[in-house]
Write a structure and sequence with these properties.
Helices cover 40% and strands 20% of the residues. It is of the alpha+beta class. InterPro entries: L1_C (IPR042566).
Length: 110
């Protein structure tokens, strides 16, 4: 793929085509497990990023916190927000209680 990109730009019917490498199925599954927590973080207004392959980094008051599972991140968010099960926790609370998949151990093919 790199050789094709170096050789010349790709185009189809006059439009330039861009090719990007996809994540493997294993990595995509791991990254998908943190989607509910990312949604809750976005709604709560926190800065976050996803580090390859699937480590969630959250910045709170200028301090970085890193989590390997969605459950860890959900518990942390619940603690800093003092979230009750009826509030924003509709996305976070089930994860922190272990009611939804929490990473590679919950997915037999990961």
């Amino acid at each position: 793929m790199q050789l094709a990109l170096e050789k010349c730009p790709l185009s189809y019917r006059g439009s330039e085509i861009h090719i990007y490498a996809d994540y493997s199925a294993e990595v995509a599954k791991k990254r998908a497990t943190v989607s509910p927590v990312k949604s809750a973080l976005r709604k709560a207004g926190y800065q976050f990023s996803l580090i390859f392959p699937a480590k969630l980094r959250v910045i709170v008051d200028g301090t970085r916190h890193e989590f390997n599972t969605s459950g860890e991140a959900a518990s942390f968010l619940e603690n800093i927000q003092n979230i009750q099960p009826a509030g924003l926790s509709s996305l976070v609370w089930p994860l922190s209680r272990g009611l939804l998949p929490q990473g590679p151990d919950s997915c037999p093919s990961c």
